[in-house]
Amino acid sequence: MLKRVFWFLSAVSLYTFNASSAELLASFNHEPCGGSLISSSPPPAVQYILNWDYISGIFGDIGDGTSWHNSDRGYCDFNADNTPDFDTFTSYLTDGLDFTLSSSVYVVGGGTNETGISESAWGLGNPDLFGYQIDFIRLQVHSTSLSQDGYWVDYGGNITWEFYGASTPEPSSLLLVGLGAASLRKIKRYDI
Asked: What is the pLDDT of residue 53?
C-alpha cells in the first residue's frame, strides 16, 4: 500500500512538472497605419517590430529583418534559435517591471512609426508576464496594405503579437519531483 502511495505521488509530481508545454500566455492586436518617404523606389515593404522604448536604456527587438509586402499575410515565430536578442528581450517581459513596449512599423528604406505603451496597457499581465518563461513570440500578420506614389509609401496593417510559454516551475513542484524519485528509489531497494 505504501508503495502505491509513493508511486502515485511521484507520478502526479512528474506529470505536473512535465505538463508545462508552451501555451498562449498573452496577445495583443495592433493596426498600424501611416506613411513614409523612401530613399529609392523598389516595391515597398514593411517590417513589423516589437522593441523596448530606448529611453529606458533597454535594447533589443523582435521582427527586425522580416519583410512583408502588399497583401502579405501569415505568421512568423521568433525564438532563441533564430533571434539573437530573444533571451534578453524576453527577460524584460518576465521581470515584474512595467516597461514601455513599442509595436513599430519600419518602412524598408524609409522611416519608422512606433506605438509605445506600458506592458500592462498592452494586456501582458499586471505588470507583465512575471512568473512565466517565454518559449517563442509569434507575429500573426492578418493584412498588409502598401501603396506607393514615387518616393512616398502609405501603409496599413492588422497584426497580432502572441506570447507562448509556460509557468516557471515553483520550488515546491521541484521538491515533489525529488521526493517522489527518492521514495521510488528507496522502495526499490527494499523490494530486492
From this structure: 75
Residues 30 and 15 reside in one and the same domain: no
Find the helix packing angle between 2-18 and 171-191, rounded to 10°. Answer: 140
Q: If you search the block for the grid coordinates 508503495, which residue do you land on?
A: 3
User: What residue type is assigned to position 16 of the chain?
Assistant: T
Supply the pTM of this predicted model. 0.77
Q: Which domain holds residue 56?
A: 22-167
Determine phi and psi for 125, rounding to 5 degrees: 100, -175
Residue 134 pLDDT > 50, yes or no?
yes
Instruction: Quote the CA–CA distance of 119 and 52 in Å, as a whole number.
Output: 10
pLDDT number for residue 180? 60
Say which residue the cell 514601455 belongs to: 100
CA-atom Rg of the chain in angstroms: 23
